[in-house]
Amino acid sequence: MPNLGIAIVRQYERGVVFRLGKVRDVRDPGLRFMIPLVDRMRKVSLRTVTMPIPSQQIITRDNVSIGVAAVAYFRRVDPVKSIVEIENVETAIGQIAQTTVRNVVGRSLLDQVLTDTETLNESIKQILDRITQQWGVYVLLVELKDIELPPSMQRAMARQAEAEREKRAKIIAAEGEALSAGKLAEAADVIAAHPIALQLRNLQVLSEIAVEHNSTIVFPAQFLSTVRALSQFVGAEGAKVEEPTLVP
């Protein structure tokens, strides 16, 4: 049909017409007529293309070998440049995308690759977009989708995460002990100022223990009070005996 001077351009396409080898114009969607045997049309799709970037082994800046795969989204915005400036735009973008991913990831630390992928994605996109502008292509998005770590590094990271959790647990336990010690000190001050509070606490403990009704408990609370009173009495009598007696 194009050789007969008739072509149908779809809605998502643009038709670049060459007349005797020179670019004549760009045809919009619809039924288009050309000069038979003189004009030739090359159709260019303007839809977004999803291009997977195969996994490749990359050595990061801290000398860790990882496998990185990505995906790029781009579309042609200038039909003429995408045909005239380069032979196969998809192959070219695939090759330059692999090289760019390798260079950007290779200049980064492993922790940055794992935690700051958004910054790496934006850097790769900007580099690709700057290169592909001359080909009439706009890069919409680049995403690192798969990062493979060596088994030894996975085990090391697992041990690191476990040690970090243990550290947090010990810190929390130490903070709890510090709070508990402070509260106990406050309670001791209260009991020292009000001795009857100790007896009330003893009675509360007895009531809690007696709930089970399965044991007999001897709690020498009154005995302790009696011993304390006896000690005070003996001390007072001893003080009286030591006082000198005046002879008239």
From TrEMBL:
Gene3D superfamilies (UniProt xref): 6.10.250.2090, Band 7 domain
InterPro entries: Band-7_stomatin-like (IPR043202), Band_7 (IPR001107), Band_7/SPFH_dom_sf (IPR036013), Stomatin_HflK_fam (IPR001972)
GO cellular component, one term: side of membrane
Stretches assigned to the Band domain: 4-161
Domain of life: Bacteria
Family from the record: Belongs to the band 7/mec-2 family.
Name by which UniProt lists this protein: Slipin family protein
